[in-house]
Design a protein that fits this description.
The chain is an all-beta fold. It has no helices and six strands. Strands 1-6-2-3-4-5 form a six-stranded antiparallel sheet, with no helix packed on it. 9% of the residues are buried.
Length: 78
């Protein structure tokens, strides 16, 4: 999730299964564990990276998908 989070950062995650629109979370989508922004648009769930090198991922109705938690902070290691 560069530029918000850099390699080596420690993320603090609240264990929850519910997120609001635009929350940043940890997800398992089709066997990939990812940290993305959770966007709800016209009834669709879209996982968006802050790093524009990665395309948004739409969660389709038959996809394997689980919300693992909400990112609530970070510790940056210098």
């Amino acid at each position: 999730m560069y530029p918000l989070y850099e390699g080596g950062d420690i993320l603090f995650v609240e264990n929850t299964k519910a997120l609001k629109n635009n929350d940043i979370g940890i997800f398992v989508h089709e066997d990939d564990t990812v940290c993305k922004r959770y966007c709800l648009k016209d009834g669709s769930k879209i996982l968006v990276s802050e790093n524009n090198e990665y395309e948004p991922r739409e969660v389709l109705p038959n996809d394997s998908f689980e919300i693992k938690g909400k990112v609530i902070g970070k510790y940056h290691v210098d």
